[in-house]
Amino acid sequence: MFSSQACSGLHSHQKLSPCRWSASASSLAGQRGSSLLDPSVQKPLQLLSYKKAHPKRHLVCAIISTLLFFATGIVAVFHAAKSLYCERNGYYEQALIHSRRSLSWSLATYVIALFVYLTLGLILFIRSIDHH
């Protein structure tokens, strides 16, 4: 209950809509609506938040995970692309959320692919031993 009240205090909607924010809360890069991201004009504390405002892109990691296991890898690519889209449009908080989701889905894909391929390899190895 507390988390829904905290969320409603920051946003006009209880659910976060992708790449849309209310104009009342402050963002990582300053006040809402300000497009001032020039690091030379900002204070030292704002410089730290400027570096955090641009999340790491995990698109390559997501594409590799898609090649390993398509079903969950495509979700990682979706979140990586959504992160890039949100960052280009100035929604850095949503970009950070999608970037983290992309990394999580990529790591989950690696674990699933490792389990599936090791299981298949073990089954094929056991079958080849049984036939001899």
- Count of DSSP helices? 5
| Backbone CA Rg | 21 Å
**Element order, helices and strands?**
HHHHH
Helix share, percent? 55-70%
Largest sheet: none
Mean pLDDT: 74
What's the count of strands? 0
Sheet/helix structural class: mainly alpha
CA(first)-CA(last) distance: 63 Å
Would you identify the regions where 5 or more consecutive residues have pLDDT less than 50? 1-17, 19-39
The assembly state of the depicted protein chains is single chain
Which overall shape is indicated by the principal axes computed on the Cα atoms? rod-shaped
**How much β-strand is present in the residues?**
under 5%
Write the layout of secondary structure elements.
Elements: H1 2-10, H2 44-53, H3 59-68, H4 70-88, H5 92-130
Helix pairs in contact: 3-4, 3-5, 4-5
Question: What labels would you give this structure?
Answer:
5 helices; rod-shaped; single chain; mainly alpha; 132 residues
Q: Explain this structure to me?
A:
- The chain has 132 residues and is mostly helical.
- Helix content is 66%, strand content 0%.
- It has helices at residues 2-10, 44-53, 59-68, 70-88, 92-130.
- Helix 3 (59-68) packs antiparallel against helix 4, helix 3 runs parallel beside helix 5 and helix 4 (70-88) runs antiparallel to helix 5 (92-130).
- It is rod-shaped, with a radius of gyration of 21 Å.
Q: What's the short story on this structure?
A:
The protein has 132 residues and is an all-alpha fold.
